[in-house]
Write a structure and sequence with these properties.
- By secondary structure, the protein is α+β, with helices and mostly antiparallel strands.
- The protein has 4 helices and 3 strands; from the N terminus they run βαβαβαα.
- The protein has a 3-stranded antiparallel beta sheet with strand order 1-3-2.
- The longest helix is centred in the last third of the chain and has 23 residues.
- The radius of gyration is 27 Å and the shape is elongated.
- The termini are far apart.
- 13% of the residues are buried.
Length: 127
């Protein structure tokens, strides 16, 4: 005879701990939580569920839920991940508007295009 295996099953009381900008960010954060032993799931906001089905992503964001008992630990993990991902831009690394210039060929092409459009409009008015 086989021994009866008994397990205690507890229901999850989901708590929203973060709203990710999109599905990719939500999946990455859920992966990090899972690596730390925290189970969670994501839910699209608003009509985002339909957009997930049709386009694979949603512009409405994704809510991340974990069990109520894991909220504190999950919050710490997510905060540390988000803090690491922020990039500090030093003033000397910023590109000023003066440094960004269009190539000469692009400027000439736009000028020629404008002249041709103006000529076409004048010809259509005259004829």
């Amino acid at each position: 005879m086989r021994a009866v295996r008994r397990e205690k099953v507890e229901a999850m009381s989901p708590v929203c701990i973060y709203t990710a900008g999109d599905r990719i960010e939500a999946e990455m954060l859920l992966e990090a939580l899972q690596r730390n032993g925290i189970q969670g799931f994501r839910e699209a906001r608003g009509a985002g569920g339909v957009m997930d089905v049709y386009t694979g992503n949603s512009i409405f964001g994704e809510k991340i839920y974990v069990d109520g008992r894991d909220t504190e630990q999950a919050g710490v993990i997510i905060e540390s991940i988000l803090a690491e991902s922020e990039i500090d831009v030093e003033p000397e690394d910023e590109i000023s508007d003066q440094e960004v210039k269009n190539p000469r060929w692009l400027q000439v092409s736009v000028g020629i295009l404008l002249i041709l459009l103006t000529a076409g409009i004048l010809v259509s008015i005259i004829l």
